User: Fold these one by one.
Assistant:
Number 1:
Amino acid sequence: MKNRATQKTILIIGASRGLGYAMATEFVTKGWHVIGTVRGKDRTLLHQLADKNPERVEIEQLEVTEPQQIKALRERLSDKVLDILFHNAGIANKYQSESIAEVSTREFEQVMVTNALSPMRVIECLQDLVSATGTIGVMSSGQGSVSNNRNGGHEIYRGSKAALNMYMRSYAARHAGESRTLLLMAPGWVATELGGAEAPLSIEESIPKVVKVMLSQQGKPGLQYLDREGKTVPW
């Protein structure tokens, strides 16, 4: 096992299942120390991973839509130095075939707050924990690409990811000249609870590639919007 002084650390926001859990597993396999967040107190897949790797996996509780919980997490992690901060948590509206005019105001707000506002709150609050040459990343989506939207559909989810991309562009502009790597990752349409059973990609076909791309970008300053193959996604 690597010495904790030399072992790299990633904080994954939203790691209890799906893409986040798969990412945690992949980083553990690569010898990293993983801090993963879960929403509630119930046992999750991440807890099972921690049971098998007690020296490499820590679990923190966080509801990303609650600013006070974000601040409390920052305090609990105040002695940590993160090589990567990655925000994975996200949701979709229940009926994704709804148009923007059909979705309820409440559900629209829930999706936008969870997918666009909360990641930026987390980044702003926790950024000082990330090393000066570290990486700050967010799980975006190819559906957040405005120029690639030729077929419509999934309007509320698309809009939330497009908004997230814009806010990360603004964040990058405010931090121009800094050495950190900033990433918006598009994993593809993956068969998860959010992606649905009809999605063409398995988690195993997506996440190892996402992690490989993330690691390949370490030490490259500025913001990039990349897919799982490392190709630039049009804004």
Number 2:
Amino acid sequence: MKERLREVDANLLLSLHALLEERNLTHAGERMTMSQSAMSSALTRLRRHFGDELLVRSGRGFDLSPLAERLRPAVAEAVEAAEALLGTQREFDAASSTRRFGVSMSEYAMTVLAEPLIRLMGEQAPGCSVALDTLDAHGAQLETQLMRRDLIIGPLGYEFPGHTQPVFTDHLVCIVSRGHPRLTGGALTLADLAAMPHAVAAFTAAGEHKRPLEIELERQGIADRTVLVQVTSLLTLPFAVGGTEMCAFVPSRLARRCLGILDLAIAETPLATVGITEAAHWHPGREKDPGVAWLRRLLHEVAVAVEDDVTEPA
């Protein structure tokens, strides 16, 4: 065993970790600050060492081989142990760091947090940057995304893996076209909601969990509402509703931004207020990472400002 270990470049462990998490030569190379050709060379050496393809071509991307799937948790543990032993997770100095953070957010969270987060990061850590992408709505991919990113930010209550920190709250409101024929004094009745067609956004990461709105509708006897339009993005719901006889329930911050642009109105309903919480989630292996700890504190500062900046729609 010792002889075989001497034959292995220890840097290959980090390359293997990046490849198993990213499943992409280019992304793994960026993570390791290596060229694609250098990462391809590392993969070749790893394949020779394990006698296995590890990454198997699938369409335009790669899937992990069965052996690679089995190796992934052990490799993650080995990298974490090596970092703890060698002290690579040293103190993080925001003022001098040039670290590039990776953060995935729900599209709604991005509309609320992206601008203040980037602005505050520029003030406190001018050499740092952040790579933002959208949260994968497919539950099967969430664990992989959590391993790849420093933080993911999405709705609380869907049993996302990892550690969790609430970021900001909001509540759902019902939007309809301004001047909708069913509006009476700016309100809709339960009978209206039962009879009207609805537009909804699919969130496949929810799995079998009922969302709070669905629970409230069932409580009010509207278990079988008519869903006329289903979209994949929460941000497109107001555009789907505008100029139609449909209604949709969206976060109040999103609604306020769209009222004037799309000629929409917020309708009062007899439903109890349905609150939502967007939360940060991170892999347990990043719990003691000083940079990620700093980013979570920065996010808390942003969240405080966001919660204070709540205005009623015109």
Number 3:
Amino acid sequence: MRSLPRWVLLPALLGALFVLLPLVAMATRVQWGSFAELITSESSLQALRLSLQTSATSALACVILGVPLALLLARTSFPGLSLLRSLVLIPLVLPPVVGGIALLYTVGRQGLLGQQLELLGIQITFSTTAVVIAQTFVALPFLVISLEGALRTAGTRYEIAAASLGARPSRVLATITLPLVLPALLSGTVLSFARALGEFGATITFAGSLQGTTRTLPLEIYLQRESDPQAAVALSFVLMIVAVLIIAVARRRVTA
């Protein structure tokens, strides 16, 4: 603390208040007497269950797709690498609604791939699969950027040493590379899960809002905001608590 300039304290406290005050204000608006009743309606429980299931699936998809992608970006060099990195990170800055429209024109009924899928009897839009695709689209960059940075920081000296001793690339990856960046992988996975859990724009654009099928908790909150504001506040508080618990548990594991 003594090594920091004193002026740092004031903007740091303002930054903390900027984040915390809205959360505290929301907590003060919750009707605690009817809290349990508000969050245990059939539609609310269905939305929460669907959000947790789809977010977990999306986080798994991010790991399956994101780990090889991060390895490619961090461990290879080829013409167009910078362009590829920029394209991969586009969902970070792209409005989610635009992402939903892009997905709609990709695998929708009249989309680039959707027409071929329709011929095979496969319809993705307005299904739970569409929710997972939308969540994965917006969450994947969080894992890629976390893991790529860790891979670059870790360097390649241990990998080179293992390869020089005769270890095959797959063994080097499994026993050297991934264990070195495991904290970043866990952190990126949690960030992806949290981002998927809060996804709204791409989901409602691409998957719609069908109760029990595509209506995740953020969509349920949005609908309840008009018909039952107190239920919307209660569900928002639940979503906030779930997100805090996820981040706290993940941070504890990463630190350990």
